[in-house]
């Protein structure tokens, strides 16, 4: 592989005009497609195989005009102090608003508070339910505008009016902190390279790669039902890996120049060596992201595949466009150790073996190999302490109660809780399928009566059958809030009761609604976590065996990843569930961690963790293969790679942390979790635990059974095959003799 990538880098350097033209053309085509495509909304949410989804599908069949998955809105009214909603003027205002809401072309129905008994017992709060024909992501902006305008007109009449429900779902905003993250990355690159031009190359190529990826996602959003969150997550991961991959190749190029190589040869060798690590690091990320399809939640699968596509583009750009741009830059890119005039003059590059004082990476690695046990224990204990909060992890999906208090959705949620009880925000819909029952009406009645006898139930509405009389819906209002364990227990109790009813009446009882769907999704994600972890870690383990030609090094990499991801989950629980540092992170409301957070973090963090493992340990493997002793190979790997890996980790943390400013709670939580995970994995696991373990293992770290060594393909990540190129090329002194 090293030889093939060398030729690819050398060719891209020589044919830079052609390579640049191809990538500019791809970016232009993607941009044109995105500009002409309809705007993306929130992706439709379906979870095949769950009871809640089966009930939704049944409602679509038996209640064809019901629009079971249509958007909903609750317009909540509160009377001024000392007044009631039943007062003449307030009642007239509400009725006018209901009439105004019913005029919308996408509105299916509007329930009047006074005829639908939607006025609180004390008379101060009422609500009108609006049902739409289409889902929240398909809702036209004009319908949302009409909803907001109707509420504003009622406010002008003196009422407090707030709107809840999914009809107001909007595209999340990332805020200015995303730009700050990129700015931090730029500063780190300038410090690392000592050159503005060299620092600009990774940023430029990362932005081009992300531009192509996000524009393609935008162009396909409508056709493939890709939500706005998909493009944000693809941007987050694409920016981070795009900058890192380019950083490693540019850094290796400058190191090759410092060895006295010609620029074409240096570009080829940079791609042949560092590029090999980029390919395998990218493969681990792609495996982890595409593996999310194992969960069988379409939204999560689309997010993973879209982000994986962006990572693949980042790898291709790093392998081709970086050497092309290095060709354009020419002598303006200085060898390692030499700064540009603007940043400190033309200090002559030092050969690594002639350097005076060892660099920080060398000194740190030397310390670790002398004190491996102490460093290992300290790292494990520290990560273990950070992981303790993860044992208190509570999972759920966000609802309006998790929104910031500044939003109308949250204020509507609080008003409904005040007027009708906390469970009113999470009603359960019980669907009774009595098509196979001899006495459907009796079955409907029995279901309602049995549910009334359960605990934690405030209201059970009479059964509402369809026209055929073979299916009915019953609304159940719990006494607890939607995200509580009490509501979850009630859902399970109704389902257990339904199983008994099925045996006695042949009627099938299903529980659905947004609250029941959230519970089912959480359970599905929990059940899928272990198979997903086994698949992803297993495939990546096999891949790393091929890369390192070792069994213990990949095993150590996987165990280190588990430590870092558990510690990162502990930090997420501490901030988003317990509220530690919540003000600093902009978390206005604490609550359960999103159900998909653990499995998404496992996938993404594993891929990113393997990035640093590949980049750092391949340097050690390269030194070991070329004859150095195991401990010396560890030090050599740090001498060449620690500075760049540190810069890459800081850049990735800055990019992820930039998304903490997002208005979308899911994006905010993922941005924080990934930033913390990169910190734990790069600076504690890869920089401390990994060298300590390798120092303790010695030569055994690179042990591979002979039979396996014969079976595995030789991918030559260390660039051993490039040594033949040295024998075929005249050395500098040979050139001087020829000239003489």
Brief account:
The chain is of the alpha+beta class.
How would you describe what is shown here?
The chain is of the alpha+beta class. 62% of the residues lie in helices and 7% in strands. It contains 24 helices and eleven strands. The chain has helices at residues 2-14, 16-35, 51-62, 88-102, 141-156, 177-193, 196-224, 228-258, 263-290, 298-329, 360-370, 372-387, 408-420, 440-452, 485-505, 514-548, 552-577, 582-585, 597-625, 630-657, 665-697, 706-711, 723-728, 732-739; strands at residues 72-78, 107-111, 125-132, 160-164, 395-396, 428-433, 457-460, 464-465, 471-478, 508-512, 593-594. The strands form three sheets. Strands 6, 7, 8, 9 and 10 form a five-stranded antiparallel β-sheet that branches. Strands 2-3-1-4 form a four-stranded antiparallel β-sheet, sandwiched between helices. A hairpin with a 5-residue loop joins strand 8 and strand 9 (471-478). Helix 1 (2-14) crosses helix 9 (263-290). The longest helix has 35 residues, at 514-548.
